[in-house]
Amino acid sequence: TLSSSSAASDVYKRQPRYPADHNGDLAFERTPEQERRWRDLLARAEILFDIDPTHRADLPDLAPNVRWIQATSAGIGQLVTGNRYDTRMPNTVFTTASGVHSRPLAEFVVMAMLMHQKGGRRVLAAQQRKHWERYAGTDMEGRTLAIVGLGRVGAEIARLCRALGMRVIGTDLRPAPDVVDHYYEPSRLHAMLPQADVLVLIVPHTPQTENLIGARELALLPRGAYVINIARGAVVDEPALIEALRSGHLAGAALDVFAEEPLPPHSPLWEMSNVLVSPHSASTSDRENARIAELFCDNLRRYLAGEQLRNVLNPQRMY
User: Fold this and answer.
1) Which of 81, 114, 205, 274 is paired with 52 by a 20 to 30 Å CA distance?
2) Which one is catalytic: 185, 261, 294, 307?
3) Is pTM, for the whole model, over 0.90?
4) Choosing from 37, 55, 182, 280, which is the catalytic residue?
5) Active-site residue 280, yes or no?
């Protein structure tokens, strides 16, 4: 039994708010009869397409027969370990959507860099005022891009930015010398940062990466550097980042993730002219569902054939 089967459609349906919306209308509620039927489906399910957001805490109790869950996100490590699924569901394999969002995220990084270097915000503001004044931006050739996290997304970012003539350096727990022009061991992060004209963060949120970039690391960046965070908000010390932006040490930042989401109205990041605020949507594409469905169908064939599944989560590493 699959959670996405037609039998379940009338007991679990939220209206999508945009293409590839996996949560839907948050005001969704089931009737008592719908809830009973949904629990019956969970009790019989062997495979789940995504983690049921309405029963995260008690999912192991309600779905004791589940042997495989295909997630629609790459970053499910905190969710799995936070709910102790790794110990409460020891016979269940979790697979992520790793790779599905690589191109959209990489294109967001390129967009953010070009907006900054080409004065995109200035152009839009002048257009709104019907103001004509020539200016000079800059270009990317010969600039150094530093990537923290050289998985599938980091590799795609490196590929696109090399096409712009950039020098690409990076670090990751797993050596990836072929992905970048120069690879740094994680212990040499501080040696890499002073070279970065642009710093891109794309690592999972784990105990090792929490507050990985703090005041000391930001100070090591060259004055005028630009920071792009498409990882998780917890990877950066947000108050330290705000201070570095206010002081002028950083020229700007493009942020898709934050310490608290949604970003609170009182956050100074909203009104900073050198910050691009994205509502955790850099990875979202109207093609996303088709790509996840292709991944799921391939894994389903593998599951039925008793073969190794793609993107199996390692709960100890949390990715």
Assistant:
1) 205
2) 261
3) yes
4) 280
5) yes
